[in-house]
């Protein structure tokens, strides 16, 4: 039931003369507001009670002194008929036999005088003796419309403050509201304020921050696990058909799709070879939809008592519904549901069969935006009813990556770790690694990096090749199984890699095999210094530290000049100290260079040292600002320049003052 339906229900119960209502909620303020409006509507006086204030307003002519539960019940008769009494947190007294007796004595009087006692609080247990005269209602969390009102209030608050202007499309607003569904109004407001603070526009990070607020909702359950959304669709190499399909499904959650009555997607089943990106796809999908990703551990559902497993399943699913919108992930279902009678007619396990039945019924009836992703590595033990048409929107088969996909995956994993893929002969590596899974390709990169580091040199093609040589892909030992799986999936599943792409990739593979890979064009006579080799390979952070270490005391313009070949270094950004933001260190830098220096200084890998301004004289473009000799404790009224350099050791005197710096946009050079 949503808020309006509950209010309708409450209205009819109060008007019908229900004397005792127990309402369970954590959202006291919101429901107090709603109940105040309701009593106005139905022309009942509203009186509230807490143990600290007693009845408010107090009965005519009485002062409220030393409130108590007993006194509350004594004073109800002092009010004229047609009143609603909102009693907060009464659970501390409700089990007292004297109080229970008194309430039972009061029931008739309350009914004849059209008075209703509403007990409101996080605990709402009805004592057995009062069961016949009471009703317990769990008040729902705010629905979309309620949150819309709250969201508008947060935006209005923002406009009144001097925060940056934030212009949102209606689709963005819709996504921001949906991202907090399942939270209370107060929690939602806090979450929006935190996620939107200081932002002039939205990006992916806003949604991941909002979604992570929902972590607490699943924290009470040992059946559900909440995942952080670190990977996006861009982190998946290949699987283009699957990615295209997902992109289209995401559209079905938009308000436009809702207006046009497009049905909510149900989910997908990913069947395929181990380590080829099924779990990764589940994570990236949640991020694409901006939904939290919740994993249901099927093995943990099993209870020893009869019926316990289904009860656990129903409880877990109810919890997921309260978090919706969400992506619900069932990993390795062939193991989780092992024991269900399969096509082969093997041993059947009645509990498991019922469990699958419970799940599938829930899935077909669910009205909330919950996208189910089930993953499986084999078809043995896979419940056949799960594979029946109409259960999932699509069954995908995820195969070992082909040549182009391998290239793509190697590139993604090199880039993820700061290396420029174009500096390596990925074509060669992809050609050699036929039969490798995505996880194994990732492992080639990781192992090569560790080996190169251990041997004290920068990652090279040789390291990658050695790493490739030492990896035996699972497909060698599991060839028969993979072959059988592929055959099984042929007519039953859609391929995660689109067929036309497969053909074109096969062609390109052929072309590639016929092609001669050109020799390395690097200039072997003058090897680059280590910092430049690092920068050349895309390892800019390491290059910067190496550059400073080699030179020991580096001025900002020298650093910018050196790195200029490898990244954008000039721009309208500057660095200043955090303790005194008018102390400018240098300006005219690009945002990325500023961020890089800032990060290295914050993580104490580089340090700022005040230096002699004379050293800057040789560089024509000094800052046109008053010059400081050393950092000052005094708050500077205007910006001033502290000539400084970067080193690998902290300054003996001013280390603390210069340990925290910040990036800022500067004008005027
Ligand atoms: P399993 O059934 O063993 O869980 P899986 O198919 O779910 O396997 P993942 O867990 O998604 O495979 O893959 C493991 C890791 O390998 C991923 O986290 C990712 O880093 C890498 N990987 C696998 N496939 C891909 C891919 N297509 N693109 C990029 N990385 C991949």
Describe the fold and architecture.
This protein is α/β, with parallel strands linked by helices. The protein folds into 5 domains: 3-138, P-loop containing nucleotide triphosphate hydrolases (Rossmann fold, 3-Layer(aba) Sandwich), CATH 3.40.50; 144-213; 225-341 and 348-398, P-loop containing nucleotide triphosphate hydrolases (Rossmann fold); 403-477, Helicase, Ruva Protein, domain 3 (Orthogonal Bundle); 533-665, no CATH class. The protein is built from 28 helices and 20 strands. The strands form 4 sheets. Strands 7-9-10-11-8-12-13 form a 7-stranded mixed sheet, sandwiched between helices. It has a 6-stranded mixed sheet with strand order 3-2-4-5-1-6. The longest helix is centred in the first third of the chain and has 17 residues, at 144-160. It is flat and about 105 Å long. Mean pLDDT is 85; it is low at 343-347 and 514-522. The protein binds adenosine-5'-triphosphate.
């Amino acid at each position: 039931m949503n808020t309006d339906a509950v209010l309708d229900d409450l209205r009819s119960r109060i008007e019908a003369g229900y004397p005792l209502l127990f309402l369970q909620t954590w959202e006291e303020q919101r429901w107090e507001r709603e109940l105040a409006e309701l009593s106005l509507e139905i022309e009942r006086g509203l009186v509230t009670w807490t143990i600290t204030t007693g009845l408010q307003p107090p009965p005519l002519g009485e002062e409220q002194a030393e409130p108590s539960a007993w006194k509350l019940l004594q004073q109800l008769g002092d009010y004229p008929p047609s009143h609603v009494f909102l009693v907060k947190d009464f659970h501390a007294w409700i089990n007292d036999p004297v109080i229970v007796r008194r309430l039972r004595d009061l029931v008739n009087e309350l009914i004849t005088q059209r008075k209703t006692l509403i007990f409101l609080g996080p605990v709402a247990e009805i004592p057995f003796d009062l069961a016949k005269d009471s009703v317990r209602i769990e008040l729902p969390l705010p629905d979309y419309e309620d949150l819309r009102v709250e969201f508008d209030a947060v935006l209005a608050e923002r406009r009144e403050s001097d925060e940056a202007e934030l212009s949102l499309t209606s689709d963005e607003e819709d996504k921001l509201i949906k991202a907090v569904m399942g939270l209370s109004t107060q929690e939602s407001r806090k979450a929006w304020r935190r996620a939107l603070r200081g932002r002039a526009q939205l990006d992916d990070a806003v949604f991941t921050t909002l979604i992570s607020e929902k972590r607490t909702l699943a924290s009470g359950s040992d059946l559900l696990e909440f995942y952080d959304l670190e990977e996006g669709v861009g982190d998946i190499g290949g699987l283009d058909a699957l990615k295209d399909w997902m992109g289209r499904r995401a559209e079905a959650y938009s308000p436009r799709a809702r207006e046009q009555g497009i049905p909510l997607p149900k989910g997908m089943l990913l069947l395929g070879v181990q380590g080829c990106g099924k779990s990764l796809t589940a994570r990236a999908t949640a991020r694409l939809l901006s939904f939290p990703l919740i994993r249901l551990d099927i093995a943990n559902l099993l209870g020893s008592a009869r019926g316990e497993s289904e009860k656990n399943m129903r409880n877990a699913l109810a919890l997921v519904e309260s978090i919706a919108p969400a992506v619900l992930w069932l990993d390795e279902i062939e193991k989780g549901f092992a024991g269900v009678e399969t096509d082969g007619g093997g041993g059947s396990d009645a509990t498991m069969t019922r469990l699958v039945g419970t799940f599938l019924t829930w899935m077909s009836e669910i009205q909330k935006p919950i996208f189910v992703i089930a993953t499986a590595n084999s078809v043995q033990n896979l419940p056949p009813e799960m594979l029946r048409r109409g259960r999932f929107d699509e069954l995908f088969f995820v195969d070992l990556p082909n040549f182009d996909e391998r290239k793509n995956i190697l590139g993604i994993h090199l880039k993820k770790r700061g290396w420029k893929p174009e500096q390596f002969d990925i074509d060669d590596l992809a050609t050699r690694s036929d039969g490798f899974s995505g996880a194994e390709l990732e492992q080639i990169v990781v192992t090569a990096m560790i080996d190169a580091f251990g041997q004290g040199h920068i990652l090279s093609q040789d390291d990658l090749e050695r790493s490739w040589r030492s990896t035996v892909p699972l497909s060698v030992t599991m060839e028969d199984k993979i072959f059988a799986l592929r055959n099984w999936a042929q007519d039953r599943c859609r391929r995660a890699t689109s067929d036309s792409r497969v053909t074109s990739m096969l062609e390109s593979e052929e072309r590639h095999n016929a092609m001669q890979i050109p020799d390395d064009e690097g200039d072997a006579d003058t090897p680059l210094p280590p910092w430049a080799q690092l920068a050349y390979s895309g390892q800019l952070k390491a290059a910067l530290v190496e550059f400073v270490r080699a030179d020991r005391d580096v001025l900002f313009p020298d650093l910018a000049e050196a790195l200029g070949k490898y990244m954008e270094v000039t721009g309208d950004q500057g660095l200043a100290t955090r303790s005194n933001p008018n102390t400018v260190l240098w300006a005219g830098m690009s945002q990325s260079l500023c961020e890089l220096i800032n990060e290295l200084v914050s993580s104490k890998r580089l340090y700022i040292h005040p230096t002699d301004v004379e050293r800057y004289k040789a560089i024509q473009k000094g800052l046109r600002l008053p010059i400081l000799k050393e950092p000052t404790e005094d708050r500077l009224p205007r910006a001033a320049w502290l000539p400084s350099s970067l080193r690998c050791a902290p300054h003996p005197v001013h280390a603390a003052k210069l340990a925290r710096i910040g990036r800022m946009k500067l004008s005027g050079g």
